[in-house]
Design brief:
single chain, 355 residues, alpha/beta, TIM Barrel, three-stranded parallel β-sheet
Length: 355
């Protein structure tokens, strides 16, 4: 509260022993210092999963299917365009594109897809998380930087922070040994930022990780943000065990709020921290706005990954606006920070003009 940064050991102490209400109060105060106008951002988008075929086989995932499975699919470019046009008709200017690590979908598919989307509509393409980028790099024999440059030239505007899970080798070896490593995830993000491509960051918690692992994850993100300034938002969400081989139990709402507050306290250089309607539902997401979040998430017109676990939380635009206004905050449609912005505009957006 005095403006000093807390360290990793202090972060662990807060997770273990911090009073929940005190954590919420502190995180809320810190959020309002960054956001004195009291604005809470939201978005309208569609999560288009271009394929559910994946060779990673992550133990926490209920969405993926192996090649040849009767429920496996790959969307054609025309099918993706149709889905994007549907969401534009409902007021969106942004799509999220993610999918499995398909053994045969190469860089050509994505370059054609992005180019066709840009030819057909005015849309912001937020696509391909670090594991997908590393996978494409391995498939085509190009460096991560070369892959990103080709995708940017084809129309990629920003990149989601999926696939981070927990940035700890021990955890990832047990959860997703066939996916990119923690260091590779961070390297992809650093490369993207250095190329001028903004990204988000995520953390999936509440499975097999320790509190120390969560804090180490946040410290890695804070350090990289200090170096590059390229993260626009952070989205923490709790693991959902339904229909997964890992099983277990989901974190409680109190555990989610505790972790969210500590994320805000540690990540002092992130402009936005997002509440998770998809995993927590509307009411807990609203409470999260008093625990450090300053983004309520999206009116998500399509979501398949969490839905595959058996959990489905939806929201309408009117519901999102009411949740924000009932707390005395001001709703603000989130702007999409794009690669095409000048460096000065990009830094301005990250420095406080983002809302």
């Amino acid at each position: 509260m005095d403006g000093d940064r807390i360290g990793a050991k202090e972060g662990e102490l807060l997770l273990y022993h911090g009073d929940l209400i005190s954590l919420g109060y502190t995180a809320s105060e810190l959020m309002l210092r960054k956001n004195r106008r009291g604005m809470i951002s939201y978005h309208i988008t569609r999560n288009i999963n271009y394929t559910n075929i994946c060779m990673a086989g992550c133990r926490f995932c209920a969405f993926y299917k192996p090649l040849g499975h009767p429920q496996a699919y790959v969307l054609s470019i025309d099918e993706v365009i149709n889905k994007a046009q549907e969401v534009i008709a409902q007021g969106a200017k942004h799509i999220l594109l993610q999918g499995g690590l398909h053994p045969k979908l190469d860089l050509t598919y994505f370059c054609r897809l992005f180019s066709r989307l840009k030819e057909n509509m005015d849309i912001h393409i937020h696509a391909l998380s670090p594991p997908e980028i590393v996978h494409l790099s391995n498939l085509c024999g190009l460096s991560v930087s070369q892959v990103l440059i080709k995708l940017i030239n084809a129309g990629l505007d920003s990149m989601p922070g999926g696939g981070a899970e927990i940035l700890a080798h021990r955890v990832r070896q047990r959860l997703s040994p066939n996916k990119c490593t923690a260091s590779q995830w961070l390297e992809v993000m650093a490369c993207a930022h250095n190329l001028g491509l903004p990204t988000t960051a995520t953390m999936m918690f509440g499975h097999i990780e320790s509190y120390a692992d969560r804090i180490n994850h946040l410290m890695n993100l804070r350090n990289l943000q200090d170096e590059t300034g390229g993260f626009t938002a952070f989205i923490p969400w709790s693991y959902q065990p339904g229909n997964t081989s890992l099983g277990g139990h989901a974190a409680s709402a109190a555990e989610y709020l505790r972790t969210l507050a500590v994320c805000r306290i540690i990540l002092d250089n992130f402009p936005l921290i997002q509440a998770s309607i998809v995993t927590q539902g509307l009411k807990i997401a609203q409470i999260a706005l008093k625990f450090g979040a300053n983004d309520i998430g999206e009116v998500m017109l399509e979501e398949n990954v969490v839905k595959a676990t058996g959990l489905e939380n939806k929201s309408s635009l009117s519901e999102l606006l009411r949740l924000i206004e009932d707390l005395g905050y001001i709703p603000q449609l989130r702007q999409s920070v794009s690669f095409k912005q000048s460096n000065n505009d990009f830094k301005k957006c990250l420095g406080g003009g983002y809302l």
